[in-house]
């Protein structure tokens, strides 16, 4: 998910982001793991979009 978001953000806001992020990495090397508690994928998508 982080890779896909990074590509979209870099493409859409290239001129602005290039001023601050000169490395090919956009996110830190850390990670986050969580559970959705069995929620339907469509509900998760709606939550993320909002």
Mean pLDDT: 81
Basic shape? elongated
User: What amount of the residues lies in strands?
Assistant: under 5%
Distance between the termini: 17 Å
**Helix share of residues?**
40-55%
Largest sheet: number of strands, sense, barrel closure: none
In the predicted model, the low-confidence regions spanning at least 5 consecutive residues are: none
Reading the helices and strands in chain order gives HHH
Question: What is the count of DSSP helices, taking H or I runs of 4+ residues?
Answer: 3
Strand element count: 0
SS class: mainly alpha
C-alpha-based Rg, rounded: 14 Å
For the structure shown, list the relevant keywords.
50 residues; mainly alpha; 3 helices; 48% helix
Task: List the topology elements.
Layout: H1 2-12, H2 14-17, H3 41-49
In short:
This protein has three helices and no strands. The chain is mainly alpha-helical. The protein has a domain at 1-29.
Structure description:
With 50 residues, this protein is mainly alpha-helical. It contains three helices and no strands. The protein starts with a helix and ends with a helix. The relative contact order is 0.11.
